[in-house]
Every structure is written in structure tokens, then in C-alpha cells.
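C-alpha cells for chain A. Residues wanted.
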């Protein structure tokens, strides 16, 4: 991703083609019955039996929750600590698009393939289609030029375009099949998985801000300290703080994690049944000219349609609940919606949600997963950028193996080790 850093003193200049997911070369999503039992009271010592490894997982996004789930399933006594609410940030506001082979040939290849398959098996275990809208998708790329709103799509007899895409679409191409692309509702997925971890494997959830990890100076972590002074004793600690990793001194002293703010809307068309399971990756030429934008459109099994894009590098606010969308970016997404399909325009659809959140990005665009150099027993998992919902399960499963068994077999984690930043500094 080529980025220009906007001046923080002035309104951000939107970088129109940043939210580019690498495309391949070229239910009823009912409200989950999740009830997650949280404790926010001042601390008592943990009552987990000491024969079990006690692990504190910090951060209740998809990465922290997947890690907590797989650790607890392997027999660890897990406490998940989230400062605001579970899946309140990107993990609740993402598209939830999954792809088997779009990361092939890069550092993420084996992580993505393992994760795609884990999503499939988790969906069977957790009733994914019903609980969190898991379903296979057909995925298309197409070009849309806003100024040509009166033109019908170029729909030859063999066109791959579904009938609801009735705007000025050109060059439609299938880039993912129902074997290779799928989706989940990310917030419902994260909450359903945590609910399972709480109810079946005894994960405890604590709401509180983790301020520091204890015991590092002594050579081995022994606790995390939560705002207000609560001490949660632990034999191992996992830091899964998403874009807030960059604000956690223990991590920011080793590598940089920056936040890329991206926007999304959810629209509810009157005729939801007309919207087929086709995800759209657009090259979108705005009426006023300039570079094409790259918004993404994901219909959901409920008939709702999620659209996202419009990203720019910005300072991540401390409080995830304070993140809101910039009106100009939201307007662009509404224009995209009505240009692509008459079913998604004003009068035919209601805009249900307007929101923004931050992608956690590293300088080398590769996630950081592994033990932190110089902090025995302390692990990190962050930097998943635009693929965190996809890569959550294999990240969590591999990290659980690393913490409990001392090595990961489901995915080779060496490419993701935080030690790479220390080695680079020495050169
Ligand atoms: C618009 C958009 C669309 C996306 N679409 C997709 C998609 O279709 N497919 C896909 O695979 N990925 C997608 N992504 C990417 C995905 O959402 C992220 O990679 C993923 O959610 C990151 O998860 P996380 O757990 O690392 O971070 P987050 O979801 O940001 O969670 C971090 C959590 O840590 C908590 N926290 C922070 N500091 C502390 C502290 N000190 N103590 C306790 N808790 C703390 C926060 O409150 C937060 O809940 C999208 C992202 C965006 C922005």
C-alpha cells in the first residue's frame, strides 16, 4: 500500500485507492443468543486450578477471541481482558469477506489457507449459517463509472452480473467461486466464538484497560495490570490489541503499528430477496474525475448490503467507542450504493449503519505473531490489516500451540515473529 501521511493538524486528505485488498491474479443472520459473562469488579485472585496454564489474553477483537478460544480448548485457564466491549472495533465493523487463495504467493498464504478451512469447520461446529451468516459467495470484479448513471450494464448473454447490479457496470469478471470465497458477519462470528469459549471451555471475560504486563523485568511475565490496579496473575500473556498495539509501549518500542481508518455503511433494501450472494470488488470512477476508488460490496444473508472503502491514515483515538465516520466518506459510499444498483438507492433502501474503524497495519504489511523478544511468556498477535477476520482462526490456533506446546504446527509462525524487527535494527 502506498500511503501519504495526512497532517494531523488539518482535516485528513482522503486517499481514494488505499483500501485495496489484493485480488487474485490475475441466514438468516439472526441476532446471536450470545450472552457473555463479564466481570468488572475489583480483583480477587483467579481461582483457576494451578495445574492449568493460566493465560491472559488482552484485547477482545477477533484475534484475541480466536486465541482465547483455541487456548481454552487446549486446556488453558484463559482470562480475556477487553477495555471497551467485545468486537467493538474493526472486528465488529468489517466486511467479513473470506478468501482461500487470494494471499497465495505471499507471506500470508499458509495462514490464509489454514484459516479459510478453519472457518468452514468452525461454521459446522457453531452453526455458522444460522448464528453468524456464514455462507459461500461468488465474487466479481467490475468497473463502474459514476457519470454514466443512465447507462445500463454491459450485460451480454453470458454476463456473470446478477440482475440486481443494474447500474453502469463494465468488464465484469468472476474472481472467486463458492469454493474459494465466503463470508461471515464479523461481530456475530466473534461473539458466537467467545460465547462458546465461555460456556464450554470456561473462559473468563474481564472489562478493563490493560496498562502493563508484570514480571518482564524479572525475565518472565507473571501478570497483567488493569487500570485501577487490578492484577491478573498469568503464566503467559497474549497482547492482541489491534491498532492500539502502537500505543502500548512494550510493543511500540519494538515495532510500529499504525491505524488506517476505513468507512462502511449497511443498507437495507426493500427487496432484500432480490440481492443474490455475489460480493463485488469495484473500480469506481467518481463523476468529478480523479483516480478510481476501490469500494467493496458484500450482500448479507439477511438481505442487507454492506459497503466499505474510503481509507486514510489517521491517529487512532484512545476510546474505540469514539470512532465515527467522516461525513464526506459516508456520502461517497452512499453514491456508490445507488450507482451500482437501483435496489440500493434512496427510496429503495434504508441506510441502517454509518461507521468507521481502524485497520491495524505494520510497516512490512505482514502480521506480527509470536513471542516478544526479551519478554519470556509474553506473546503478540496484531497487524492483520484487511485480512483479520479471515486470518483470526489460524492465528489463534497457531498461537495456542506456541503458548501451550512451545511450537506451532498448523502454520509456520517464523515469518511472523516480532524478532524480525529487532534483527533489522541490528543490521
Ligand atoms: C472497513 C473494514 C473492512 C474490513 N473487511 C474485512 C474483511 O472483509 N475480511 C477480513 O478478513 N478482514 C477485514 N477487515 C480487517 C479486520 O477487521 C481486522 O484485521 C481485524 O478486525 C483486526 O482484529 P484485531 O482483533 O487485531 O483488532 P480490533 O478488532 O481492533 O480489536 C482490538 C481490541 O483490543 C481492545 N484494546 C485495545 N487496547 C486495549 C487495552 N489496553 N486493554 C484491553 N483491551 C484493549 C480494543 O478495545 C479492541 O476491542 C476489515 C477492516 C475494516 C476497517
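Reply:
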Amino acid at each position: 500500500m502506498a500511503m501519504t501521511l495526512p497532517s494531523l493538524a488539518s482535516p485528513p486528505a482522503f486517499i481514494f485507492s488505499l483500501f485495496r485488498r489484493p485480488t487474485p491474479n490475475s441466514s438468516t443472520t439472526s441476532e446471536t443468543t450470545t450472552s457473555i459473562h463479564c466481570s468488572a469488579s475489583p480483583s480477587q485472585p483467579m481461582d483457576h486450578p494451578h495445574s492449568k496454564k493460566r493465560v491472559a489474553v488482552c484485547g477482545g477483537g477477533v484475534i484475541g477471541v480466536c486465541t482465547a478460544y483455541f487456548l481454552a480448548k487446549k486446556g488453558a485457564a484463559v482470562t480475556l481482558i477487553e477495555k471497551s466491549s467485545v468486537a467493538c472495533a474493526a472486528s465488529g465493523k468489517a466486511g467479513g469477506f473470506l478468501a482461500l487463495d487470494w494471499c497465495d504467493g505471499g507471506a500470508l498464504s499458509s495462514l490464509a489457507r489454514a484459516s479459510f478451512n478453519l472457518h468452514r469447520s468452525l461454521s459446522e461446529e457453531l452453526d455458522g449459517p444460522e448464528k453468524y451468516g456464514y455462507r459461500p459467495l461468488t465474487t466479481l470484479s467490475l468497473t463502474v463509472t459514476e457519470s454514466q448513471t443512465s447507462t445500463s450494464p454491459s450485460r451480454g448473454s453470458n454476463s456473470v452480473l446478477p440482475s440486481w447490479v443494474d447500474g453502469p457496470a463494465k468488464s465484469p469478471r468472476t474472481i472467486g467461486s463458492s469454493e474459494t470465497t465466503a463470508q461471515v458477519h464479523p461481530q456475530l462470528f466473534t461473539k458466537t466464538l467467545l460465547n462458546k469459549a465461555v460456556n464450554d471451555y470456561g473462559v473468563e471475560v474481564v472489562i478493563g484497560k490493560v496498562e502493563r504486563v508484570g514480571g518482564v523485568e524479572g525475565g518472565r511475565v507473571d501478570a497483567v495490570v488493569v487500570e485501577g490496579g487490578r492484577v491478573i496473575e498469568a503464566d503467559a500473556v497474549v497482547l492482541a490489541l489491534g491498532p492500539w498495539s502502537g500505543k502500548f509501549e512494550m510493543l511500540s518500542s519494538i515495532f510500529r503499528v499504525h491505524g488506517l481508518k476505513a468507512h462502511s455503511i449497511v443498507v437495507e433494501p426493500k427487496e432484500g430477496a432480490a440481492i443474490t450472494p455475489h460480493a463485488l470488488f469495484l473500480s469506481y470512477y467518481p463523476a468529478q474525475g480523479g483516480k478510481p476508488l476501490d469500494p467493496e460490496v458484500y450482500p448479507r444473508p439477511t438481505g442487507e448490503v454492506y459497503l466499505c472503502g474510503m481509507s486514510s491514515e489517521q491517529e487512532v483515538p484512545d476510546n474505540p467507542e469514539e470512532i465515527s465516520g467522516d461525513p464526506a466518506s459516508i456520502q461517497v459510499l452512499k453514491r456508490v450504493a445507488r450507482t451500482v444498483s437501483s435496489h440500493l438507492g434512496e427510496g429503495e433502501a434504508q441506510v441502517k449503519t454509518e461507521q468507521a474503524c481502524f485497520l491495524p497495519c505494520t510497516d512490512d504489511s505482514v502480521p506480527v505473531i509470536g513471542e516478544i523478544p526479551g519478554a519470556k511468556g509474553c506473546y503478540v498477535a496484531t497487524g492483520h490489516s484487511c485480512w483479520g477476520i479471515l486470518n483470526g482462526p489460524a492465528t489463534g490456533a497457531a498461537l495456542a500451540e506456541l503458548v501451550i506446546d512451545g511450537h506451532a504446527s498448523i502454520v509456520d509462525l517464523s515469518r511472523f515473529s516480532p524478532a524480525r524487527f529487532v534483527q533489522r535494527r541490528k543490521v
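The CA atoms of residues 97 and 183 lie 5 Å apart. Residues 109-126 form the longest helix (18 residues).
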